[in-house]
């Protein structure tokens, strides 16, 4: 300790300084000692020991802070006989005010707390900042370990970011590791930490069902997309629950009756054929293979537009729609920085325009259905039922049917459109890759389709023909089982939830039931691509029904799964029959890539050529959609 006495003649000022530049070594010593201890559950899961560590560290940090406080004791002598002021300044830990000499000097005493930072050097500030950050890191690690309890997961996570970097760099490896951790114990689930969020990965099928079945305000909330509420709005179909959600699903059901699906089948085939022709032309025009991912996505968008809103989307409106949907797709994968000119802001505004366009289509469909015309697309079937309910409400004097305004229905149509894009694209790409790697399956598909339909007939594949293609339907279901497009279905725990007798999921945790992991449990030789498992003889789709989670389960199970499977069956039938194809295989080309649904790592690069003698001459699309 350095003592400094300084006397100045003016006013008999006396300054006594006592300084000690103290780096909080005792705080760092505690941290050093803690770092040498093993991070075991026995150490950190004792509440008393936890309280002791946090309290002791906080106390030492606070005492170090007080150590550097600068207290100024200023003493003035107001005696008429004294022409001088006597000033005495102490810089020390504490000021014993009861021993102050002010009474002897007939003085008035004031204590001045000078600004704390003004007495700090950069070194001192840096030392406290380091200590504060270290305290946050310690508390973060303890919080993670408390939430993790005894379930498998990393013993230490990177400060603040957690394991976000490995997740972004290689999501496939990240989720494979979580699966391995879940397999390492009989529990069937594991833990991790991502940018302040505690996550639980669920591999066990029954536990996944438990999450799906408990989507309610005081249990789990379906997430869908990390920033979905900002993009889609609070009233999106994904976020609804309870009776309101049940009522809406009931009103949506008529859109997927056999009659409605038969209408969609005709539209789907015409669009698929047009795109297949363009794919072959593109492939033949170059020597290199072509990637199918973007091409398949565009085909799906074209199909969805036509099937959902048919004749109500004119050429200019369709071009604007595709432009807005492109902006939405770009913003979907960006951070939610909602400022003018950012991709996220452009996406949010694009969603508003898309919903407005779909609301206009809804209004036009209502007008047409009121005239008693036949439905030609999904919105027509929807409005036909909606108008019937509105009329019944008028007759009985009841309020108008819920979910019946143009804006509301436009929003739900957008939900359908979004759900039909990436997931369907994923299945189409895996179908191509799996048919190429299993020529015996491809041969059976071609034989079955040829027995039911011929391109030279110029006829559309009917619903009856589709029902006859049982093997092709089994191939479609096996594609979805083997590579479920949405491998993970994130939920947020709104409250603590007892997942098992021994573990309770903490409030705020993000829970990931894995449809992919369930697909490889229960089934006979699940690692093998085997469409025969869905045959009438084996019926594994019934025996292991609970393991088939590609379309989810519980109240939020995919309402359009029959439409999605029909679309995949039609694509497989037409693609296998009309085209010859060969995968441009490279090392790792069939590895899983998250974009965000899964697809082949190389975007499914293929060489294409025409197989049939001539393409079928289907009716013009405008003749079916009037």
UniProtKB/TrEMBL annotation:
- Entry keyword Heme: yes
Name the reaction it catalyses. Answer: 5-dehydroepisterol + NADPH + O2 + H(+) = ergosta-5,7,22,24(28)-tetraen-3beta-ol + NADP(+) + 2 H2O
Subcellular locations according to the entry: Membrane
The residues that cross the membrane are 50-69, 116-139
Q: Which keywords does UniProt give here?
A: Heme, Iron, Membrane, Metal-binding, Monooxygenase, Oxidoreductase, Transmembrane, Transmembrane helix
Mention one GO molecular function: heme binding
**Would you name any one GO CC term?**
membrane
Which Pfam family, giving just one, matches this sequence? p450
Q: Which cofactor does it need?
A: heme
InterPro entries named among the record's database cross-references: Cyt_P450 (IPR001128), Cyt_P450_CS (IPR017972), Cyt_P450_E_grp-I (IPR002401), Cyt_P450_sf (IPR036396)
- Any one GO biological process: sterol metabolic process
Q: What is its EC number?
A: 1.14.19.41
**Binding, heme:** 558
**UniProt keyword DNA-binding present:** no
Q: How does it sit in the membrane?
A: Single-pass membrane protein
Q: Which SUPFAM superfamilies match?
A: Cytochrome P450 (SSF48264)
Q: Which residues form a coiled coil?
A: none
Superkingdom as given in the UniProt entry = Eukaryota
As for family, the record states: Belongs to the cytochrome P450 family.
The name this protein carries in UniProt is sterol 22-desaturase
Species this chain originates from: Phaseolus vulgaris (Kidney bean)
């Amino acid at each position: 300790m350095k003592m400094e006495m300084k006397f100045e003649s003016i006013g008999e000022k006396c300054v006594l300084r006592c300084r000690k530049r103290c780096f909080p070594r005792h705080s760092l010593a505690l941290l050093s000692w803690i770092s040498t201890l093993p991070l075991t559950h026995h150490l950190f899961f004792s509440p008393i020991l936890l309280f002791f560590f946090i309290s002791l560290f906080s106390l030492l940090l606070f005492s170090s802070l007080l150590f550097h406080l600068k207290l100024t004791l200023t003493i003035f002598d107001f005696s008429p006989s004294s022409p001088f002021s006597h000033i005495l300044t102490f810089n020390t830990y504490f000021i014993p005010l009861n021993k102050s000499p002010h009474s002897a000097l007939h003085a008035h005493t004031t204590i001045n707390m000078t600004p704390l930072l003004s007495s700090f050097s950069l070194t001192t500030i840096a030392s406290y900042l380091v200590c504060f950050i270290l305290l946050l890191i310690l508390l973060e690690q303890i919080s993670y370990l408390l939430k993790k309890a005894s379930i498998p997961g990393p013993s230490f996570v990177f400060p603040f970011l957690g394991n976000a970097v490995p997740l972004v760099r290689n999501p496939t490896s990240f989720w494979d590791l979580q699966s391995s951790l879940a397999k390492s114990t009989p529990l069937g689930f594991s833990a991790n930490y991502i940018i302040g969020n505690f996550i639980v990965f669920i591999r066990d099928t029954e536990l996944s069902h438990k999450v799906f079945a408990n989507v309610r305000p005081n249990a789990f909330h379906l997430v869908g997309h990390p920033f979905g509420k900002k993009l889609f709005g609070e009233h999106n179909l994904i976020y609804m629950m309870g009776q309101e959600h049940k009522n809406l699903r009931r009103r949506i059901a008529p859109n997927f009756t056999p009659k409605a699906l038969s209408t969609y089948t005709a539209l789907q085939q015409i669009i698929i054929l047009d795109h297949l022709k363009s794919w072959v032309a593109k492939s033949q025009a170059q020597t290199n293979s072509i990637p199918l991912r973007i091409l398949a996505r565009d085909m799906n968008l074209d199909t969805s537009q036509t099937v959902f809103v048919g004749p109500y989307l004119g050429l200019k409106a369709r071009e604007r729609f595709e432009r807005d949907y492109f902006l939405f797709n770009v913003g979907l994968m960006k951070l939610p920085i909602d400022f003018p000119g950012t991709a996220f802001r452009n996406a949010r505004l694009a969603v508003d325009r898309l919903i407005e366009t779909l609301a206009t289509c809804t209004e036009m469909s209502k007008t047409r259905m009121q005239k008693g015309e036949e439905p030609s697309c999904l919105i027509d079937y929807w409005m036909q039922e909606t108008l019937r309910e509105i009329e019944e409400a008028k007759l009985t004097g009841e309020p108008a049917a819920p979910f019946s305004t143009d804006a509301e229905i436009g929003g739900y149509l957008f939900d359908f459109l979004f759900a039909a894009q990436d997931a369907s694209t994923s299945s189409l790409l895996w179908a191509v890759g799996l048919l190429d790697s299993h020529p015996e399956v491809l041969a059976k598909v071609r034989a079955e389709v040829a027995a039911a339909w011929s391109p030279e007939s110029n006829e559309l594949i009917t619903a009856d023909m589709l029902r006859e293609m049982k093997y092709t339907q089994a191939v479609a279901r096996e594609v979805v089982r083997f590579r479920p497009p949405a491998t993970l279905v994130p939920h947020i725990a709104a409250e603590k939830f007892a997942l098992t007798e021994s573990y309770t999921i903490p409030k705020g945790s993000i829970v990931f039931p894995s449809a992919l992991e369930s697909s490889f449990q229960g089934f006979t030789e699940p690692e093998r691509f085997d469409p025969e498992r869905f045959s009438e003889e084996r019926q594994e789709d019934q025996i292991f029904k609970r393991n088939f989670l590609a379309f989810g389960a519980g109240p939020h199970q995919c309402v359009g799964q029959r439409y999605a499977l029909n679309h995949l069956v039609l694509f497989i039938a037409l693609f296998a029959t009309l085209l010859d194809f060969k995968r441009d295989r490279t090392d790792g080309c069939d590895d899983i890539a998250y974009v965000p649904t899964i697809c082949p790592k190389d975007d499914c690069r293929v060489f294409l050529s025409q197989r049939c003698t001539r393409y079928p001459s289907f009716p013009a699309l405008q003749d079916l959609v009037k």
